[in-house]
């Protein structure tokens, strides 16, 4: 009995060595095949297993290194919606070094490592900074934000000088804001309107830099929204409420209700017009925006205080509890609407017929601005 | 609908702008009666209600989509909105897309 068990153990051991080798080879082949199909998670798991076996380590480390290099630097343009994952960059270089360590003569791993190191070196190159001249002029203009006694003529001169140096719309919008804070509503309106035209021109001139058409449309709308909001706010300060409403609402449509400052301005306008319901709605819209679009903390505080001062009907809970509930409701609604909306997506294919049932020829609509209205007679 | 008629009058000779109304009625007699009453000057087509609702993702009519020259939907209004689907607002959407 004893002998038999020892004998069996010997057979198992003898079989184990070649079996493990086949498995590592198989894992390597499987990992490569999975990667060819761009099934990266499974491919990486198989290759990691193959990398643990000495017989396949060099090949597996190299394959992993190439996948990580792809993920770290190259995949952004490979599939719509994919982005580079910088966390893989250091791992790519480590895997390729491990491949060379396992087999110092492996030329393909050395090639891959050189390429990855090239990418890594390119990451360290400083992206083009603004020209020193522009930086200085920006700083000069910014310094007027807190210079209450500076002559208006000096501010205007600083705006013009900065606008001369570089043709983007920023100095017009910054300048309009500074002049508004100084109570110079008319000058601010004129500057904001010039800023809108300059913004369009700047985008036209650099259209290819915006890469995707959706992105440049977004930029046109941003410049126009900012200008409309500034003009609208200047009109609020001038107590021209009807004119203000037209501009602030235009800005709200352009920014799809997602600009904090604009929603805050609409709230302030509604409060000035004695429309507490509408004011509450806009303040809540503003405060429900978060992150980059969440607005500066001092303005958030002002919006919260204005909201707390408005009469609240049909709620016994504390202001804070009510506010939390309202804001999360709005965020959820916005998320649901964004998932559902077709805005910024291509018009889907539709099968249309004429009223008497023949196929409808849509070729005459191509290349035109189209208003498409769905209705029913009931 | 009356607003659309007003706005259409403004753009009907503009070669850069097209209007298309799509009925999702399934009763063709009733639709024909309605069209006879309304006497629309602009083109009217038909689509199956479920297909249109699923493709265009609306659950409220009238639903209006504003599509730019390259075929991308840029604005959308659903139902009859409280701010008023006024002629000036409809024109605003069209004019925005025309300047792009």
Following the backbone from N to C, one meets helices and strands of chain B in this order, namely HEHEHEEH
CATH class of the largest domain in chain A: Mainly Alpha
- Biggest β-sheet strands, sense, barrel of chain A: none
Q: Name the biggest interface.
A: A-B, 43 and 59 residues
Helix content of chain A: 55-70%
Number of domains of chain A: 2
User: Structural class of the helices, strands and pairings of chain A?
Assistant: mainly alpha
Strand content of chain B is 15-25%
Instruction: Please give the number of β-strands of chain A.
Output: 2
| Average pLDDT metric of chain A | 88
Mean pLDDT over all positions of chain B: 84
Strand order of the largest sheet of chain B: 1-2
End-to-end Cα distance of chain A: 90 Å
Could you explain the architecture of this structure?
- The complex is a heterodimer of chains A (378) and B (100).
- With 378 residues, chain A is mainly α.
- In chain A, 68% of the residues lie in helices and 2% in strands.
- In chain A, α2 packs antiparallel against α3 and α13 packs antiparallel against α14.
- Chain B is of the alpha+beta class.
- Chain B has one domain: Glutaredoxin (3-Layer(aba) Sandwich).
- Chain B is 41% helix and 21% strand.
- Chain B has four helices and four strands.
- In chain B, the strands form two sheets. In chain B, strands 1-2 form a two-stranded parallel sheet. A two-stranded antiparallel ribbon of chain B has the order 3-4.
- Chain B is globular, with a radius of gyration of 14 Å.
- Chains A and B meet through α10, α11, β1 and β2 of A and β1, α2, β2, α3 and β3 of B.
